[in-house]
Specification:
mainly alpha
């Protein structure tokens, strides 16, 4: 197992060229973009689903006291 005693010499070496770990650079950018796209997509899908559910419940026109009559699918 190799050890590094001087990080300045190590990072300025020709083999390393500034990359401390493999995949440094574009892979993180792609993962961040993918994460943002998934996050926005999840919010859009959730809003659409909730909107449809609220519209369905509004069409049923439940009254304030209907839950007392044990109406199913409240």
């Amino acid at each position: 197992m190799a050890t590094v005693t001087n990080w300045i010499d190590h990072l300025s070496a020709k083999e390393v060229a500034g990359a401390v770990y493999p995949g440094a650079g574009s892979s993180e950018t792609l993962l961040v973009i993918l994460g943002i796209v998934l996050w926005i997509g999840w919010h859009v899908m959730t809003a659409k689903s909730e909107s449809e559910e609220f519209s369905r419940l509004a069409r049923k026109r439940h009254g304030a006291n209907d839950y007392k009559s044990n109406i199913t699918d409240w």
